[in-house]
Amino acid sequence: MAHLDILDSIHIAAVLDDTVDQLAVLGHIMPTSFEGRPEANEIVGEEIGKIVENQKNLENQYEELIAKRAGLKSSRKDSGRLKSNEEDIGNVVGGIRHAAQSFGKTLKQSPLTTDNVVKLQEDRNFLQDILSRTLEEIKQTCSFEALVEAVNAEKSKKAEIQQTILKEEEGRKEIKNLQKQIQNIKIEREDEIQQRNQMIAHLKDQLQEMKAKTNMEGKYIQKDAEVAVYQTQKKCSLIEKQLREEIELLNEKINEEERVNQEIEQYLKTHQTELEEKVEFWMEKYDKDVEAKHMNWTY
Predict the structure, then answer these.
(1) What Å distances lie between residue 189 and 55, 184, 186, 287, CA to CA?
(2) Alpha-carbon dihedral sign for residues 199, 205, 208, 212
(3) Where does this protein have coiled-coil stretches (predicted)?
(4) 134 vs 12: CA distance, rounded Å
């Protein structure tokens, strides 16, 4: 344990006592509970008001320049004034952009923001507590072991935070590596999917080609079969026609033969009748001649 001389202890105690008092006063100037009150906003209100007023003036100038540009464009005579007007508009736009950035920066850097006030109060309370304990220890034992312990504790905490940051960085690197691996796997999968899609498209093309070929072959076979059937039907029709003609010719011949037979039969019947009449005539004549001759012989 380190000890101080009485004189050094008195000097350091006086300094620490004054520092603790100033920290206490600082804590009462802007405590966290005052955040959002009108008296607290007065600290930065004037600066923000100036920025807002300046931005309003720039916006009014911008509207005037836009109206002026519309008039210059409608006239189409003074190109120099139009160019100057365009430059003025660009400058005003840049001023508005700068004013907006300044306004945002002022709000972010304002000591009245929640994060800044809380952090300041925590640091002030911590420092005030450590210095108060160190002051009491110096007054009682002329040592500052509490300060050493606090510093070592803060170093350990800082080392832990640094270790956490390193782990977080390693984790981020690991996440990046994993993301890269995922991206590579995704690219590989996309390539594989693309290749499969190409293969599917190729197979679809082949299938479509085979369908078209099969369809054409089917149509060809059907057409060939239809032609063969038509030829067979045509051939059968011709044969049927020939047979019908032959049948008709045979019927005509049969009819002719029947007619001829009938005529011959009629002729024969007629001739037979005549012959019978002649035979009868000649028989009668014979009988008469025989009878006459017999009578002549008798006489």
Answers:
(1) 54, 8, 5, 139
(2) negative
(3) 48-75, 161-213, 240-274
(4) 10
Instruction: Report the alpha-carbon distance of residue 220 to residue 148 in Å, rounded.
Output: 104
* Helices and strands in the chain: count of H runs, count of E runs: 5, 0
Per-residue DSSP letter, 36 = T
Q: What is the pLDDT along the chain (299 residues), one digit of tens a residue?
A: 556 556 666 666 676 666 766 666 666 665 444 445 554 455 545 655 666 566 667 666 766 766 676 666 666 556 677 677 677 766 766 665 665 555 555 544 555 555 566 777 777 777 778 778 777 877 777 777 777 888 888 888 888 888 999 988 888 899 989 888 999 998 999 999 999 999 999 999 999 999 999 889 888 888 888 888 888 888 888 998 899 899 999 988 888 888 888 888 888 888 888 888 888 888 888 888 888 777 766 65
CA-CA-CA-CA torsion sign (191, 196, 200, 205): positive
What does DSSP assign to residue 112? Answer: T
Closest CA to 2 of 268, 65, 269, 12: 12
Kindly report the backbone phi and psi dihedral angles of residue 30, in degrees, each rounded to the nearest multiple of 5, phi listed first.
-140, 75
Provide the angle, in degrees to the nearest 10, between the axes of the packed helices 79-109 and 38-75: 170
Burial of 58 from C-beta contacts in 10 A (0-12 / 13-18 / 19+): buried
Q: How far apart are CA 137 and CA 283, in angstroms?
A: 199
Q: What is the largest CA-CA distance in the chain?
A: 234
Nearest Cα to 130, choosing from 113, 115, 152? 152
Radius of gyration of the chain (CA): 68
Task: State how far the Cα of 127 lies from the Cα of 135, in Å rounded to an integer.
Answer: 12
